[in-house]
Write a structure and sequence with these properties.
This protein has 159 residues and is an all-alpha fold. The two termini are 37 Å apart. 78% of the residues lie in helices and 0% in strands. It has one domain. It is elongated and about 75 Å long.
Length: 159
């Protein structure tokens, strides 16, 4: 079964799954960094394995939510109402899991700082993806121009 951009159903599925896997790893690392810094500030140099399990499972679930419910908002071309709603809901869900999971000892002030950090992380990811698309576009346009020049030379030579 093929769609308009010539990808099979399996290829489209695999592409989404790889994106979600990458997204889960990226956000898990960001959340784990905040968690560890918070623990170190409080004089605790250990991390709870249960908290890390909650984080990674939460990141996977949030990846599916981002991709399937909110149109992959951190990779979108522009931040419209749907994307901002997705950012807000995903941030709220991360904060709820962190609060009820006790990642920050149920301290509301730290949870609010975590919310700001998650929003900052999402905005950074959005800007990085946007920049990467611009660079990729430049590279593709340059390669297209080179192809056109070479194709024209071949046609001019009668080859």
């Amino acid at each position: 079964m093929k769609n308009d951009n010539n990808l099979t159903l399996f290829e489209r599925y695999l592409n989404k799954e790889i994106g979600i896997e990458f997204k889960a790893c990226l956000y898990f690392f960001a959340i784990l960094f905040f968690y560890c810094v918070n623990r170190m500030i409080n004089g605790d140099y250990s991390a709870e394995i249960l908290h890390m399990a909650e984080m990674i499972f939460g990141c996977y679930i949030m990846g599916y939510i981002q991709v399937f419910l909110f149109n992959n908002f951190d990779e979108s071309d522009k931040m419209g109402p749907l994307e901002w709603t997705g950012l807000g809901i995903c941030t709220l869900l991360y904060c709820l899991v962190s609060y009820f999971g006790g990642w920050f000892d149920k301290k509301l002030s730290v949870t609010l700082c975590f919310a700001a950090y998650v929003i900052f992380t999402y905005i950074c990811a959005y800007l990085i993806y946007k920049f990467k698309r611009k660079v990729d576009d430049k590279i593709l346009n340059k390669e297209l121009e080179l192809f056109k020049e070479n194709h024209k030379k071949v046609n001019d030579n009668g080859e």
